[in-house]
Amino acid sequence: MTSALSGRHIEISWPDLGVTVTAELDGRNPELADALWEALPYQSLQGHALIAGQHLYHAAPIPSLLHLSASTRIADRREAPDGTVFCSGLQHLGIKYGTLTEPMPATPVGRIREEDMPALLEAGKAVWDSVYSTKKPILVEVRRAGAEGGHSIPLLTAADPEANRLLQDVYTATERAWLTAPEELAGLHAGVIPSGAGSFETVLPTLLFVNGETRPLGYATYGGLARATVQGMPIESLRHMARLLVGVPAEFLGYCGLEQLWSFTQRFLACLDRLDRDDFLSVVSQLALYINCLGGWNLHLYPWDTGDHLRQLRAGEPVGRP
Description:
Blueprint: E1 8-14, E2 19-25, H1 30-39, E3 42-45, E4 47-48, E5 53-59, E6 84-88, E7 92-100, E8 108-112, H2 117-134, E9 139-144, H3 161-178, H4 183-189, H5 204-230, H6 235-245, H7 247-256, H8 259-271, H9 277-301
Antiparallel strand pairs: 1-2, 1-9, 2-8, 3-9, 4-5, 5-7, 6-7, 6-8
Domain Cucumopine synthase C-terminal helical bundle: 164-301
Protein name: Cucumopine synthase C-terminal helical bundle domain-containing protein
Pfam family, one: Cucumopine_C
């Protein structure tokens, strides 16, 4: 029997799979839940955890997730009930649908209805196949239950004219790449590397290094700068940390093929001294969304099944088994 809907409910739908599940925002972490609710509807590329187990997540176009505080934390998300929905400071909406191996704290906002759990399991398997092997993108739509769907991402603003132009350009690039693989990344994964990055014409090491630099640049560097801004770090310290943290990885990624990211970074650094706290927060938040979008696509495009022959040893199995 379908449970009656009361309070705030969201529908999480994967149209290509013909699967929709409903979650209740159950009162935990109201600031995070409010930010999610106000951002609906939106669409995103659906991702799947690659080392943590049965967990779905996607980039949510909600800048405030980078810095909003949580009032309720689960100390170890492995212990959360299956179907728990999380909002993350990594700018993710995540759903635990089975066994997890990674012990980490998490911030829940709701839970999938029990009767929808079989459909959630079906979606989880299909998304894993998409990310790991088939590479056919699966999009997710999140909307208020019973409401129409749709999609938009936020455009932030700045008082400084150059910063405002940068925000518009970053927004345009993010909007273009949000639901369709960005040309630079698609080309890189196809072996088109204008700089020649990749010793002896190899491609896989370059893909690995791009993944290894893009994720922390979005998650830790730009997310960290946004949090430090809201938490009151002095503006001179923020500017100093930005100079220390963003240039080197962005220049390397530009060499590897993400030239637009490097161009945006140079423009950010060029106007940095003119930015007040509000403008600084707008720019780092818009760039975080863009870079996290790139990171999601890189994780999707990466040829993970290249290592399909490598499997973990079970207890008691000899090393070097045939």
